[in-house]
Amino acid sequence: MTEEQEVFREHIQQQGLKRTAQRDLILDVFLRTEGHLSGEDLYRLVHDEDPSVGQTTVYRTLRLLTDAGLAREVRFGDGRAHYEHNYKHEHHDHMICSECGKIIEFYSPELEAIQDAMAAKYKFQLTEHLLRMIGICSDCRRKRAGSEKKVAQVANSARR
C-alpha cells in the first residue's frame, strides 16, 4: 500500500466510511494522472476503466481526497473546479493562457517574499495563498502575430 493509499484509508476510516473497490479505483486513477483534472475529467477516466462507477461517486470521492489532503482544488477562471495532487507536492502558483487554456506552474521566491512582506505590513498571518496570473502564452501570441501579418499582407495586396 502506498503512502497516499494509507492516508486515504485512514481518512475514510475516521469519517466512518468503508474502503470500497470504487473508491480505490478513483484514488488510483487520480494518482496516476498528472496535471489539473476537473471532476468531469476524472469521471471519464474512471468510467473508461469501470463503467459501473457513477459520477456522484467520483465527485464524493474527490471531496474525500481533498479533505484528506491528497488533492487540492484550484480554479482557473473557467467556471470549473480543477484538482491537482497536493500530498507532499511543493507549493506553486499558476499562469493561465486566456486563449488556449494552457497552464504553467511556477514557483517564485521573489513573489513569496513580497507576500510575506505584505502580510507582515498589515499584521496578517498567512495560512495559505493562491496566485493565478491570466494572460496570453507565447504560442498564442505568435499565432496572433502571424494572423495579423497575413491580414496586413492581404490588405496591402488589395490596395494595389
Percent strand? 15-25%
Structural class: alpha+beta
Main β-sheet, in a few words? 3 strands, antiparallel
The CATH superfamily of the largest domain is: Winged helix-like DNA-binding domain superfamily/Winged helix DNA-binding domain
At CATH level 3, the topology of the largest domain is Arc Repressor Mutant, subunit A
- The termini sit apart by 73 Å
Strand order of the biggest β-sheet: 1-3-2
Number of strands: 6
- Stretches where pLDDT is under 50 for at least 5 consecutive residues are none
Q: What does the average pLDDT come to?
A: 91
Task: State the helical fraction.
Answer: 40-55%
Instruction: Please provide the ordered H/E string of secondary-structure elements.
Output: HHEHHEEEEHEH
Count of discrete domains: 2
Tally of individual helices: 6
Q: What is the global morphology?
A: flat
What Rg do the Cα atoms give?
Answer: 21 Å
CATH class of the largest domain: Mainly Alpha
Please tell me the CATH architecture of the largest domain by its name: Orthogonal Bundle
Overview of this protein structure:
The protein is an alpha+beta fold. It has 2 domains: 1-89, Winged helix-like DNA-binding domain superfamily/Winged helix DNA-binding domain (Arc Repressor Mutant, subunit A), CATH 1.10.10.10; 90-160, Ferric-uptake regulator, C-terminal dimerisarion domain (Dna Ligase, domain 1, 2-Layer Sandwich), CATH 3.30.1490. It has helices at 3-14, 21-32, 39-49, 55-67, 109-121, 138-159; strands at 37-38, 71-75, 81-85, 93-97, 103-106, 132-135. Strands 1-3-2 form a 3-stranded antiparallel beta sheet. Strands 5-4-6 form a 3-stranded mixed beta sheet, with no helix packed on it. A hairpin with a 5-residue loop joins strand 2 (71-75) and strand 3. Helix 2 (21-32) crosses helix 3 (39-49). The longest helix has 22 residues, at 138-159. The protein starts with a helix and ends with a helix. The mean pLDDT is 91.
